[in-house]
Amino acid sequence: MASVSITSVDSVKFLDLCKILKRMSDTKKKADRCNVLLHYLHDLKSKLPKTTDGKNTTLFALLRLLLPKLERERPAYNLKEKSLGSLLVRVLALSKKSPVAKQLLHFRSVSNSQESDFAGVVYFILKYKVGTDAEELTIGQINEALDKIATHAENRSDILDQTFSYILRKLTAEQLKWFLRIILKDMRLGVSDNHILSCFHPDAPEIYKMTNSLSKVCKELEEDESRPTELGLQLNYAVTPMLSERLDVTDVQQYLSPDKTYHIEKKFDGERFQMHMKDGVFKYFSKKGHSESFTKTYGETYKEGLLTPFLKDSFGSDVKNFVIDGEMMGWHKELQSFGSKSMPYNIKKITENSKVRPCFCAFDILYYNDKSLVGPPEHGGLPLDERLPLLDNLFKDIRGVIQHSARRAVHKSSDVLDALNEAMQNDEEGIVVKDTKSYYISSQRKAGWYKIKPEYTEGVLADLDLVIIGADEAADKTHGRANSFVVACAELSSTGRPQRWLSVSHVSNGLTHEERAGLCAELELHWKRTADHPPPEHLVFNERKPDFWIEPDHSVVLQIHATELVRTPKFGTPYTLQFPRVERLRHDKPVNDAMTIDEFKKLIKNHSPVIKLAVNAISEDQLNKTSAKSPRKRQKKVLQVAEQFRTGIQDKVEVISNALAGRRICILSDEEDCSRTELIKIVESHGGQVVANYDESCWCCVSGRCTSAVRACVRARRVDVLRAGWLRALRTAPAPLPPPHPLHALALSPATRLHHAARYDIHADSYTEPADKTTLIMCFEKMDKMPQIHLMPDEMLELDRTLFGGHTPLSFLRPCVIHFVALNDLNVLLAKMYGASVCDANEPSLTHVIVPECIASETLNEMKKKHVDTISFVGMRWLEECFSQAKIINERDYLF
Predict the structure, then answer these.
(1) Handedness of CA 96, 99, 102, 104 (dihedral sign)
(2) 734-743 LR contacts (CB < 8 Å, sep 24+)
(3) What confidence category does residue 482 fall into, taking pLDDT thresholds of 50, 70 and 90?
(4) Considering the domain 9-207 in this protein, what is its CATH number?
(5) 802 conformational bin, left if phi > 0, alpha if psi -120 to 50, beta if neither
(6) Whether CATH 3.40.50.300 fits 793-894
């Protein structure tokens, strides 16, 4: 930025902000990234004039762009990657079948973009297609555009299209990338939100935690030198809620002190909310601090909304204002009972015609009659046992409208166990145990509250052995192509063998990065893209189609735990899994032994919308095991060479083949389900010799997991590096086999590349050997990943002559390089369609200048002086005649 003063932050160029964001993104160290922002903000503040509101207040317009996740003043955009892709295709008037549209709609399949997120892929795709009328928009204009998008995203597609059309014309591709990241609320700067707030002001994170409002943060911190005297809760600003620490019930005796008192509450399965009231005016805040739409739904006064009118007579006459913390539950009007989040309704979006109505279950009070009750004692906070009497006296329970959370005291650890088993019998989510002397510490998870659920205890949930039959593509393919896996159970035929596979759920949690990468590598050769190859009839997906599918015979079994079953039409089974998690890979289990649909149906105890999957009650013996553990005796280990450093097997291996006879092979890494020892046995059983280190005398190296040694060997390309899957599938042979197919290789030595060059094309398709279906599909996929080749005009002319002996009816203008003096959009498009190159008047290879009929002779003569005699100045009629006859017409009758 130039060192001149600015009138307001709204006048700052968005381009300047994008430059800072790019610098932060490109900087390696986090501290350096923060320094870039710190200096920018300091420089910006020094240029701002003194205002009555203070400098920091005016910075709100900038801060809401830097921290879109924390922005609460603007409504939600309700636009994710899929809807944004469709929107861009519509605004750019692209055919859905065009390559650009396919990339926008399936951005995760774009592999040659430097950045894997949606905005980065859009930048890569559209960097030469947007910003045709680029201007330096200001931060104020960007905020206005974002306001329009947020306001009309759901109900006015015409305004949405107009706004994006304007943005695509006025922003460069680089600016568009950051604009889209603001909408998606994922800036990818490598700096946490708290660090960015700290760059703005040291006390900003603490104030945001207590208010959940960026505008309030700016108002509280008017100048850099000022520091707030109190950081307590304020009415009508949401405090970040206190959280509960996760606790296994078998560890209760270790975590709960006998010197403290605790009580137990039911864990509600609703949405965390805060209710604020001041002088009869209510506000409702969600867990993330959003308020506007919820206050409108539930009611700001006793005369409006779905909840507030029913609260009129519940509060005492001495109550002036308060903030209470609790759970917004759905109360079924007919059944007169609570629902859960898994049921087919959204408590945040219910209407007057819904089957449920909102019911607020209060378990804490944070503010009462002008006094903040939160925080440690030095900030005026009160312990829980002093807050609860205030909550108990605040309102009278109204069944199905507003209720106190029931509490009971804990006298011994078995009380906690009994309460959890009772919750399991009642199909409830779990329980919460609270230290009665705990203080309400905003956003803290280890401050005296504990949540205990059945799934936290080993052996309580049912083991579900399901087979992978599909996957969704990952945007970041660092740890494999798949982001989540679709798992299925088998429907058996009369012979007892699977005849169909019914999808049950998709699962992404539970696998480590290494396990995910290994699993993806194992299945890589067998994936089929759904868009290109529709799934066969025996794989039943219903509405939830994955990006890829795989035949179960080539797949693996996953052992999965889930908290409950939820009724849905999206999958092949009538119920899907809620919160599924992979416990382990079951390579030891054949796919035909996986869970069947009959076994799955046994879990459906009734036909309610939600079914809990906790199948085993927890006994007191399990509690006692953790409190009285006997010390384990450590067995004496025999000293020996670690397996990863062994180059041979101590036991004799029977040679069954000569496929690798006389060949030296180095095992670089093993696989998840095939150890180094097993790979060595395979090599020796085929007559090969395993060596510890590779050199030019090695026939090849074998790689399973991707390690630093594998990456170094691939980069060196001194020897062939082959996948472990090739070795495991190696067939027996009486004589040494030729080098394997190139598709099995991660890297090839110069000698092998020369050998393959005479036998395979660059896509690994053999010149002489017939290709099977699997190999052909793999070749096509390799073609798709290769960079596109764009021919120069003279190369395209040569190609036309070679293939067609001249020009095709759609390329007859290929030899022409045309400049239009007066643009005619239709004729420009037609000229390009028929092969002409359209350029400006200074192009050296110019062949034709199209001039309007009414051009002045002085202007024409001036133009002719600037060009050589070989350029033809013709009228628009010459071009239209060329279109009519589908060939280049002699220019003689059309010259100017």
Answers:
(1) negative
(2) 734/657, 734/658, 735/658, 735/661, 736/658, 736/659, 736/660, 736/661, 736/662, 736/663, 737/659, 737/660, 741/775, 743/525, 743/775, 743/778, 743/779, 743/782
(3) confident
(4) 1.10.3260.10
(5) alpha
(6) no
In whole angstroms, what is the distance from residue 896 CA to residue 876 CA?
Answer: 11
Query: Per this entry, what is the length of the chain?
Result: 896
* Residues 6+ away with beta carbon under 8 Å from 61: 8, 9, 10, 139, 140, 143
Write the pLDDT tens digit of every residue in 289-315.
888 889 999 999 999 999 999 998 899
pLDDT by residue (tens digit) across 570-599? Answer: 999 999 998 899 988 888 888 888 999 998
Q: Could you tell me which residues come within 8 angstroms of residue 143 by beta carbon, excluding any fewer than 6 positions away? A: 10, 61, 64, 65
| Class at the top of the CATH hierarchy for domain 245-456 | alpha beta
Q: How far is Cα of residue 228 from the mean position of the Cα atoms in its chain?
A: 37
Amino acid residing at 162? Q
Distance CA 65, CA 17 (A): 9
Residue ranges per structural domain of the chain: 9-207, 245-456, 464-602, 643-758, 793-894
Q: What fold does the segment set 643-758 form as a domain?
A: Rossmann fold (3.40.50)
* 877-881-885 Cα angle (round to 5): 175
Rounded CA-CA distance 591/548 in Å is 19
Instruction: Name which of 499-503, 606-610, 687-691 the model is least confident about.
Output: 606-610
Query: What is the pTM assigned to this prediction?
Result: 0.59
The three-point CA angle 342-538-516 to 5° equals: 60
Looking up tokens 């006390």, which residue turns up? 203
The answer for residues whose C-beta is within 8 angstroms of residue 817's C-beta and 6 or more apart is: 793, 836, 837, 839, 843, 845, 846, 847, 848
Collapsed DSSP state (helix, strand, coil) of residue 165: helix
Domain 464-602 indexed as CATH 2.40.50.140 = yes
Query: So what's the pLDDT on residue 630?
Result: 42
